[in-house]
Amino acid sequence: MLRLSVIFFGCFLFALTCLTQEAEPEIQKPGYKIAKVNSQYVDLEGYVARGAGDFPDQARYQRGLERSGKFSAIRFSILWKAPSTPTPNLMVRLDACGEDPKTGQTTTAVRIRRYPTKSHISAWAILEIEGDALARFGRLKSWKVSLYQEDELMAERKSFMWHDKELEKKNASTTDQQANPNNKAAESPAKEAGR
After folding, report:
1. Helix 2-20 to helix 55-68 angle, to the nearest 10 degrees?
2. pLDDT cut 90: percent of the chain above it
C-alpha cells in the first residue's frame, strides 16, 4: 500500500510540474525579462495554502482546490524586470487558456496591468481571474505572459502547455478581457485578445 502511495504521489508531482512548468522565454530583449510566473488557486477564504506547510503540503492543497472546483480565483504572481532607467508605458499582459469542466471547451482570459512610468529594476504584478470571469473560464490549462513597452513586445514567457495555434482558432467574442481599472484604456497589444 505504501508503494502505491509513493507512486501516486510521484505521478501527482509530475502532473503538477507539467501544468506550472515554464518553457524557455521566446522573446527577451536586453534589460527586459519575465523572471518568474506562479499560478495558484485561491480558496473561498482567500488563502492559497493552509498554514506554513512545506511544498508537498501546499501542492496537495492546491490539487485539492483544483479537483473540488471550490476556489474563488486563480492568482498569477509575475516577477518582471526592465532597465533601471525610467521606462515609460510598460504593460504586463497575461493570456490564460482554460477548459470549461462541463463542456470541455477551451476558454480564454486576458489580464493587463499598466505602469505609466517605472523607474525600478523589477516588480511583482499580481493578476487574478475571479468572479463571473472565473465561472466562464473554468480550470487553468496554460498561460503566456508578455511585457510591452509602448506597443513593442520586450519579453515573453509561456507555460509548458501553451499553444498559440489553439487560441488562434478561438473567436474574439469568447475571450474575457479585463484591464486594471486604475489605468487608462487598452493599448493596441491588449486589443489582440483573440490572437
Report:
1. 80
2. 25
